[in-house]
Amino acid sequence: MSTTGHIDTFAHDNLPPLSQWPDIINLEALGYPERLNCAEELLDKAVGEGFGDKIAIYAPSGHWTYADLLESANRIAHVLQEDLHFVSGERVLLHSPNNPMMAACWFAILKAGGIVVATMPLLRDQEIAKVVDKARVRIALCDHRVSEEVLKAKGHSLVLKDVVCFGDGELEGMMKGKPTTFANVNTAADDVSLIAFTSGTTGVPKGTMHFHRDVLAICDLFPKHVVKPTEDDIFIGSPPLAFTFGLGGLLLFPMRVRASTVLLEKAPPADLAKFAEAYGATVMFTAPTGYRFMLDNLGSYNLSKLRKCVSAGETLPKATSDAWFEKTGVRIIDGIGSTEILHVFISASGDDIRPGSTGKTVPGYEAKIIDEEGKDLPAGSVGRLAVRGPTGCRYLADERQLEYVQNGWNITGDAYLMDADGYFWFQARTDDMILSGGYNIAGPEVEAALLLHPAVKECAVVACPDEMRGNIVKAYVVLREGELTACPETIHALQDFVKEQIAPYKYPRAIEFLPALPRTESGKVQRFKLREPALQQVTP
Fold first, then answer.
1. Same domain, 350 and 485
2. Which of 24, 329, 382, 386 is most buried per CB count within 10 Å?
3. Are residues 514 and 387 located together in one domain of the fold?
4. pTM of the predicted model as reported, rounded to 2 decimal places
């Protein structure tokens, strides 16, 4: 590793041993220097190249140019150093919905040589306290409207001392009079720039550490080779910036090509479509659920300027992909990424898309299918997905590093099939494979069959304990309004429908109707909640 630019070396000291890192490959081809501050590359250089007057961020609260963003980030960096006695290498909690001030704080922390620890705005105090204690966070910058839980977390935390709010004038007041220029800390390319905590997990959170070079690598791989944005694009989407899918798609990727982005504090599908029309968005990032919900009301909005639509977070059902293409003429770009690898590493676009398939490996990455012993499996076999590339998993002081990284490969926890043409077909999360009566049944396959029924709005399938079969397939279904009613007759109708779509032994022997599925703030279905005993009552 290069000589660190950090005075506080906590993150460096708590990286896993080099022997436990995944193989880092194809990094040299990206050509990054040993000294690198990603904020400078994404923001300072954009202004230096003449983009200062261009709109960087559109938002309902007001639009910010690249110059506005740079000046605010510089002032906040001065506040960190001069008022909060910040030293490079310290971690700073960033807690806010998506808005321009959150973006300015993100860049300020990096410019000052700090490490961003962003959390979802809806987290509760106990969850926040676990994150700040694990990452040893002393300073928090947060939107005043979501500050209550952070302030409560401060009371639980061993280390959190300073909570500074913006939006109510506190941080803005500290910024007044600060210089609009700032000498960026000369960080090393392999200094930690952010610690991203995995979403939707239970128990002790896992912090994934990513370098300055990693931030640029994800900009120079998936978007460059698959999305192919230009400076004329306007990005929009729903994922929070605290979620790496949102960080890349709604901030890093547009700024790397000097494009514009729309940051929305709340982006349910109707609002997302409304603002996409209002701002003339051309590139959209959201979860499969977002596209599925928008399908019902597409006729109410003019989305004719959309040219690229990106989906990740969970598998994109073929039915959703086909319906979206039929109504818009735009084929959704599916992709799989992970917090551990930072962003998308398997995807496809344009004529390379095969609906139902996630795609091929993004240039710069390699992927294969392995068995439980780590041996390579031939094409057409279902097994564990293993990935390596210029980015990879480095957990913060966590023994689970040995589970995620094996023999130099990142083991994502997904069951996949790779066909003879190198396309990857999602089967299930490895913990979503259901063993029932001796059969291995992939929950997502049953979900895809149910989603073909016009009355099914969304669904999730999990294993339900059963004395006779060990487990049975249980489906939780949200019905569309005005279609079928939640009754035994509908259960039987859906079961018969699934038997017509896939092998009959895979049908859901139990179905329960819910008004909505439990989801994380990033949009992922919380299947662990559906597995809780209180919900595991078999419906005949």
1. no
2. 386
3. no
4. 0.85
Q: What residues does 442 pair with on adjacent strands? A: 433
Strand order in the sheet with 308-311: 64-65, 55-58, 260-262, 234-237, 283-286, 308-311, 333-337, 344-347, 360-361
SS3 at position 434? strand
- The pLDDT value given to residue 528: 82
Q: Strand 64-65 to strand 55-58: parallel, antiparallel, or no bridges (unpaired)? A: antiparallel
Report pLDDT digits (tens) over 311-357. Answer: 997 778 898 999 999 999 999 999 999 999 999 999 999 999 999 99
Evaluate whether residue 86 is within a structural domain.
Answer: no
Does 441 share its domain with 383?
A: no
How does residue 539 score in pLDDT terms, banded at 50, 70 and 90?
very low
Match 């798609």 to its residue by tokens.
249
At 187-212, the pLDDT tens digits run 999 999 999 998 543 456 899 999 99
- CA gap 398, 196 in Å, rounded: 14
- What local confidence, expressed as pLDDT, does residue 153 receive? 95
Together in a domain, 384 and 429: yes
Whether residue 330 lies inside any domain: the answer is yes
For the chain, the helix, strand and coil percentages under 3-state DSSP, each to the nearest 5: 35, 25, 40
**Angle (deg, nearest 10), helices 288-295 and 318-328:** 50
Judgement on whether residues 454 and 430 belong to the same structural domain of the protein: no
Point out which residues pair with 512 in neighbouring strands: 476
